[in-house]
Structure formats: structure tokens, C-alpha cells
Amino acid sequence: MTDRVIARTVGALFIVGTVTAVVGGSMVLAIEDPGALSAVAGDQGRVATGVLLELVLALSVLGIGALLFPVLRRRDEGLALAYAGVRTLEAVFLMAASVAALVFLASGPGAPAAGGAGRAPALVLALREWTYLIGSMVLLGAGGLILYSLLFRAALVPTWLSLWGLVAAVLILLRGVLEVYGLDLSVVWQAALAAPIAVNEMVLAVWLIVRGFDAAGARASRVLRR
Length: 226
Known about the structure:
The protein has one domain. It is 81% helix and 0% strand. It contains 8 helices and no strands. Helix 4 runs antiparallel to helix 5 and helix 6 packs antiparallel against helix 7. The longest helix is centred in the middle third of the chain and has 35 residues. The two termini are 28 Å apart. InterPro entries: DUF4386.
């Protein structure tokens, strides 16, 4: 695959990933209700669709990491490997979260509610919560820091887009770390910390599809390093 084809494919995968994350995540939210099993009982189809969309998200994450590796390796092989590894780990955590949601769904409406005497549904919900949190925020932010630092150094996209991505990656990583440590953020703060990376990935996706990688900027960057 040429760099142009890779850029267009990665751009399309960024769009697929963002859309499936937003739509799929909103569909699976029902299992986080206090009486989750009873809430999900009448809407299993919607939750199952959301889980399938999240699996598509995980596959798109894997695809982005794999496709970008040969392009990034020519700039810094170590960081390229680190980026591919982080995105693979992110996909694994997202898949684990999806499987946990399916297991919870399979518990059926007759099983004990998460807050009742039964421990299994509560443990499955906890697994879902932690794997999704780490995958969709902590590892997403870590991967973004690696990617945008490489894009900036190699001048593969405009400087403003790389710097925006770095700031956005820090914000989503910050939200993930805060939630890992149990800080209950308001909806406003959650949106403020997550929106920049979502919008940035859409802009990056369109840029890669329309313009591709900035070969001229990359050549100038190599000249300056010499």
C-alpha cells in the first residue's frame, strides 16, 4: 500500500472508530443503571447492537495501529512500535469491555440485580466499567501522545493539527486518570475533557482522506534535523 492509500484508509477508520464509539457507547449505557438487569430486559436488542458497534470500534483501533506502523517506522521505529503496541492493548481492553457487556446481557432478566445479593452481575459490571475506562480514555490518551508527537516531529500533518492533538490527548488521558482514582466528574467536565480528541480525530481523518501525509513537510523536517 502506498502512503496515499494508507492515509485514506486510516482516515476512514478514524471516522468509523469515532462514530461507533459514540453510538455504541450510548446504546450500552443502559447496563450501568442501578437496576440494570430489569432495565435491559426490555431492550436487549439495542444493547446487543451497541456491543457489536463497540467490537467494530476495537477492530478499527487495531487497523489504525497496524496501517500507520510502516509510515511511522520510517521516522522513529521505537515510537512506531510503542504506538502499535498501545493501540493493540487499547483494542484488547475494548473487546474485553464488550464481552463483559454480552455476559451481563446473557444473565437474563431473572438474575439478581447488580445491587442485590447476587455478586456475579456486579462483578461483570465492574469488569465492563474498568476495561472500558482504561481502553477508551487512558490508552487512547497515551496512544494519542505518541502519535501526535511523531506527526509533529516528522511534519506529516500541519503543526496546528499536531499540537491540537497533543493537547487533546493530554485532556482525555487526564480524565481517564482522574476517573481511575475515583473522582466523580460532572457531565460538563466529562464532555470538556473528551470533546477535543473526538473533534480532532474527525479533522485529522478528513485531512488524511483529502490531503494525505505532508510529504513536502516531512522532507523539510528531515533536512532541518541534518
